[in-house]
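In this supplementary section we document a worked example of the pipeline. Step one takes a protein sequence of length 79 as its only input; no multiple sequence alignment statistics are reported here. Step two produces a three-dimensional model, which step three serialises into structure tokens for compact storage. The input and output of this example are shown verbatim.
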Amino acid sequence: MHQILQPEGWAKPVGYANGVAARGRLVFVGGQVGWNGQCQFETDDFVGQVRQTLQNIVAVLAEAGAGPQHITSMTWYFT
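The serialised model returned by step three reads:
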């Protein structure tokens, strides 16, 4: 799977990893927004759209036989 890279003597980071070593198949997920599978926004609520975006990511990962536990990095943009 993957290994968290934590240099000896460094303080453990909170909410991120200093590095991750992974092997195997790579899956890239991009362009996910807060709409449903039919490209329709069900809410204009920020939290609701973030929830839908995360559900979309999980659905795409599932197509590759993966899940949230396999994510090594995410970049978010909010406007």
